[in-house]
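Here is my example:
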Amino acid sequence: MENTSLTIAVLAGTTREQRLSIHAAQYVADIGQQYDDIEIVFVDPKEFTFSGDGNDAEGQDARYGEIITKADAFFIVTPEYNHSIPGSLKRMLDSEYGPYLRKPVAIAGVSNGPWGGVRVCEALLPVCHRLGMINILPELYFPKVQNIFAESGAINDEFSDMYTKNVRKAYDELIWFARLLKGARS
């Protein structure tokens, strides 16, 4: 029987001190840990160093490289800054090239406004495409994040069922593609 276990890297999208999107990222990671045969690796860009630009050796963090090389899929959870991608997320993604190739990615946008990061999800599509990742549907949106999560980071009860359902739907699609593409890569 073939190995069906997968590793999914959940990438938080910003290093900003007052980031509320970290609650959504942790929530997505926590739901992923409920799946059998799925290892979730939570990637907080605050825990890595990406000096320089691009994917030259001086711009890479070896620990990050190991994580994304091992990962079979990615789930990016990021806030929208000025209608686009946070610089820290772009820098993190740009630090490597090969390890993303032919791996699926789910994207969740976060905002404190009413749109839930729809523009950051759109802005990430060409970046992920260029890195060779396969974007899956549906994207997730966390609008007015300050209302969805308590200050502690826990999801507020009135949002729990809806967001759990939506995150699971995205994981189901991500896992399906991850298994398919893992088999094809090997």
